[in-house]
Amino acid sequence: MPKLDLTQIEWLTGSGYPGKLARNGEGRSSQRLGDAGGLTQYGVNLVRLAPGAASSLRHYHMEQDEFVMVTEGICTLIDDDGDHAMQPGDCATFPAGDANGHHLVNKSDAPAAFLVVGTRTPTETGYYSDIDMMVKQDMNGFAFTRKDGSPLTADQIGDET
Amino acid sequence: MPKLDLTQIEWLTGSGYPGKLARNGEGRSSQRLGDAGGLTQYGVNLVRLAPGAASSLRHYHMEQDEFVMVTEGICTLIDDDGDHAMQPGDCATFPAGDANGHHLVNKSDAPAAFLVVGTRTPTETGYYSDIDMMVKQDMNGFAFTRKDGSPLTADQIGDET
């Protein structure tokens, strides 16, 4: 059945970021709509942000195109040029390799949500704009390091596991 | 600037279907949001349907994943299983190679719109469920034929050019 029953799709919480950086995921939940509907070539997620929550750490992708459309409330797109308020129906694009780090933050006092599309590629490298961290992804999973490839430090990620 | 100014993105009309089949495009207009924002790995279009209009002839893709989210009004998804009403926020997925032909039709008396995502692939084959037609796409463009590869007939496409 192509039409999705959104009431039956699990809401995921938490964060894949290491150590204390995982706190960035607080207040964010998401449904993997594309996965639920059998898509494999790109991911489509519906992401909800409680007041104060962020979509992610500010980042950009080297190999994967990204698209967002706000579907509820007000999201603030933060990129190298500052803050940009986005309301339902507003869209933004982040072409692969464009080194303009971005994330969406709910600076309002009401819930907000957006749809996000990202290409699935065999490998990927992402860079975080506000901290010395990068992520490399391949078939074995994700690896977070400093941008020179050296391990993240306790100062960056704390002693949390 | 990642945030798109939708008021500045051209609305396209018309149809790429041959001959009289192009009438299928009447009442439909679309904005190529992904192209406008520099995305190349998948297309993202916002499609408006006037009352009575259809997204396309009923079809399925062999190589490209497709995703839709209704953003305005009521769209009726028609597939092999019949009619499925979709309202704003409702989503549907059409994995590559799933031979369940589909299209969206505005059966209401008010405007409707949806967001659609489709992978960009070097080649593609599409099949039309209700008529004897297929389309093959490569770097040279599109070619419409009968499903056995023979030319479409005047009975199918008329004498219009």
Automatic annotation (TrEMBL), chains A, B:
The keyword rRNA processing does not apply. Transmembrane segments: none annotated. Signal peptide: none annotated. SUPFAM superfamilies: RmlC-like cupins. It comes from the Bacteria. Keywords: Metal-binding. This is Cupin domain-containing protein. It comes from Ruegeria spongiae.
